[in-house]
Amino acid sequence: MIVPILIAAAVIVVISIIIGIVLGVLSEKFKVEADPREEAVRGCLAGSNCGGCGYAGCDAYAKAIVEENADPSLCPSSDRVKIGEIMGVSLKAGKRMTAYVKCSGSCAKTNADYSYFDEPDCRIAYLAPKHGAKKCAYGCCGFGTCAAICPFDAIRIVDGLAVVDREKCQACGKCVAVCPNHLIEIIPYDAKYVVRCSSHDKGKDVKSACSEGCLGCGMCMRVCETGAITMVGNLAAIDQEKCIGCGKCAEKCPSKIIKKRD
């Protein structure tokens, strides 16, 4: 009884060895040589696999650059100059970008219309009356959906308001896409001044909802010497390409919602 079992076991071992050898030979014969540039480009990317470039991850993006001539500037944290050298093209170094939240409406500064007890998710709170309990319908819901989706741990919630750590932020844009109130923008890392409000209401309504909101007075626009500030409805907007960081807009803003970048 033992002999047939041993014979069967030996046959299985021999067959396994033969199959292994055949597979090894076939894999070596038919393997596709990877373009060495793909690994080199991969080393120039952020390595976070955040998907901000639109591809499944850094490996997929590097492969697309090498094999499909994909735009090599889609990763805001990549070494574009080095990628250009690898691919034999001339690329300029990209300007570093970061996210920022266009709102000053912390719990201490905003009034509430009611108590919210539903799911602590900004996307769900957005469906509630006035987009949540805060009286300002344009402000931060404060439940941290942006912080939860950030792959770099660059966003935290402080007193009901999302705050971006620009040193950690890699400008992948995931927070921009997930914010239901469209409060988050990608701006230059070295931007000097920002408007910390998104309300398009008139001054009186803004003040009744939040102690720090744009009144739409246009004073900032009038004192700006470079034409960097325009009024979009009742809200000031800064063109960061034109802003020279003189700070006159912040000095004249009566509600102090134009602030020097932290």
What this model shows, in words?
The chain is an alpha+beta fold and 262 residues long. The protein has three domains: 36-87, Orthogonal Bundle (3-methyladenine DNA Glycosylase II, Chain A, domain 3); 96-190, Alpha-Beta Plaits, CATH 3.30.70.20; 193-262, Alpha-Beta Plaits (2-Layer Sandwich), CATH 3.30.70.20. Helix content is 33%, strand content 12%. The chain is built from ten helices and eight strands. The chain has helices at residues 2-30, 36-42, 58-68, 80-87, 122-125, 145-149, 174-178, 203-209, 219-223, 248-252, and strands spanning 97-101, 155-158, 161-164, 184-188, 193-195, 229-232, 235-238, 258-260. The strands form four sheets. Strands 1-4 form a two-stranded antiparallel ribbon. Strands 2-3 form a two-stranded antiparallel ribbon. The protein has a two-stranded antiparallel sheet with strand order 5-8. Helix 2 (36-42) crosses helix 3. The longest helix has 29 residues, at 2-30. The chain is elongated and about 95 Å long. The termini are far apart. The mean pLDDT is 89.
Keywords:
262 residues; 3-methyladenine DNA Glycosylase II, Chain A, domain 3; Alpha-Beta Plaits; 3 domains; two-stranded antiparallel sheet; two-stranded antiparallel ribbon; 8 strands; elongated
Arithmetic mean of pLDDT? 89
Note the total helix count.
Answer: 10
The spatial strand order of the largest sheet comes to 1-4
Q: How much beta, percentage-wise?
A: 5-15%
Question: Which second-level CATH architecture of the largest domain applies?
Answer: 2-Layer Sandwich
Distance between the termini: 82 Å
Largest sheet: 2 strands, antiparallel
Reported by name, the CATH topology of the largest domain is Alpha-Beta Plaits
Q: Which secondary-structure class do the elements indicate?
A: alpha+beta
Q: Helical content, roughly?
A: 25-40%
Parts with pLDDT < 50 across at least 5 consecutive residues: none
Give the beta-strand count: 8
Radius of gyration: 27 Å
User: How many domains comprise the coordinates?
Assistant: 3
What's the overall geometry? elongated
Helix/strand order, N-terminal first? HHHHEHHEEHEEHHEEHE
Assigned CATH class of the largest domain: Alpha Beta
